[in-house]
Amino acid sequence: MNIEIANRLVELRKKNSLSQEELAAKLGLSRQAVSKWERAEASPDTDNLICLAKIYNISLDDLLKNEAPVEHIVEAERPEKSEKAEQRPPETQSEPTKKKSFVHIGKDGIHVIDDEDEVHISGLGINIKDGHTQVRLGPGGIQVGDSKIEEQCRKTRDLVTGTMALLTILAYVSIGGFLHIWHPTWIMFLLIPLAESIVLAVAYRRVTKLSFPVLVSGIYLLIGFLYGEWHPWWVLFITIPIFYLIFRPIEKLWLKDKTVTIDGVEVKLDEVGEGKSAE
After folding, report:
1. Which of 78, 201, 251, 268 makes the best surface tag, with the fewest CB within 10 Å?
2. Is there a contact between 265 and 32 (Cβ–Cβ < 8 Å)?
3. DSSP per residue, 53-92
4. Rounded to an integer, what distance in angstroms lies between the CA atom of residue 146 and that of residue 262?
5. What are the structural domain ranges in the chain?
6. pLDDT tens-digit profile of 189-216?
7. Taking all residues of the chain, what is their mean pLDDT, rounded to a whole number?
8. Architecture (CATH level 2) of domain 3-87
């Protein structure tokens, strides 16, 4: 599809206050199909063009309004794969594209991988990956997320957690070895899960991802060990349920209908990494 028409489709969709998911639902298609149109990777067929014109209440001429020269349109419509085939040496043109395929059935469950699609069935539940979309079905309900966000988050979380663990061990051994203060400096090990939760809170834009109970426990232990005052500081633990009662509703309200775009695919922030119980 010509890039100008693709941009036109994006403009019309946003002008009518529709998300890719909402438009796809009206057309009876997947969100990925709409995303490919808007990235000029595919073209809607005649029926879909007619439906789009009716949804936006415009004519087909207005929908496909394009002032680009004919040669530019023809060049843009040429399939990308054909261009790559022309550039390859003749002896390699007939070679099929190799896809990654893997099937394993064993004590740890059933695992199937076919190119970018994956299905894993085990005692922990069912994990399905379709492109960037990832769905988990387990004891906690159904979790819908974007695999690219989760992969980036996992790498960042592992890096931060590993670095914090190393620094904490070095600090603890140094303070204990040189100053002979082994207690209560062990409390600093609570910084490791706290650092990990901060990464999750930032990545998913959810303050409730923060390990608030760990933070409260660390503060309570520090006050008790340094000042010997355990009472009435136990009231700090009452702030834990209050924290979630206040921020969970605010968080859900703030994230409602908010989306981020990754590789042309819109992902709702209130779905990424969020568990939803099946009804």
Report:
1. 78
2. yes
3. HHHHT--HHHHT---S-HHHHHHHHS-HHHHHHHHS-GGG
4. 9
5. 3-87, 101-131, 148-276
6. 999 999 999 988 887 778 998 999 999 9
7. 77
8. Orthogonal Bundle (1.10)
